[in-house]
Design brief:
This protein is mainly alpha-helical. Helix content is 67%, strand content 0%. It is built from ten helices and no strands. The longest helix has 19 residues. The termini are far apart. The C terminus is likely disordered.
Amino acid sequence: FLKKLDNDPQELIRRTAPEARWKITQLSSADPTAALARILSSDPAPARRMWVAFRLGERGDSRSVDALVLSLDDSDRDVRGRAAAALIRLGQPAVARLREVLKRVEAPANLYAAAILGYLGTEADVAALERFAENSDVQLAQTAQESVRLIKELKSKVPDPVGYRAAGLTMGR
């Protein structure tokens, strides 16, 4: 069916058919998570890496954590953002790796790790985040301060499972 789209009278359909076939092929592989993780680290096209990061988050497979964490250093800001969103969706399985990233000094990965830990982290992460609160990188300092605020604010509230789910947060704080 998809091969027929190459001859469709509408140009947009003809132009997008090869990419649609490529995406279906990736999602139909024997191990889609492994296939997508390889693409995330190797495909030269930022649009494909963004799509892959989104799909990995959507799949919810914790095996994708390493590939997504590595993508926090991607050269494309949109890919980094999609990888961060995917890690938030994965929740607790990502926390240990994000803590490792936070120990590094390099940006932009530590900026994203600090932001994500604001949603997924615990009181145990506050000290590491506070270390960045006085950083010369204003964006990193503000992000770390906001994450500390979020952790403390969420810790002080009685968990409301419905509210947490609606906010996209995980339980287990």
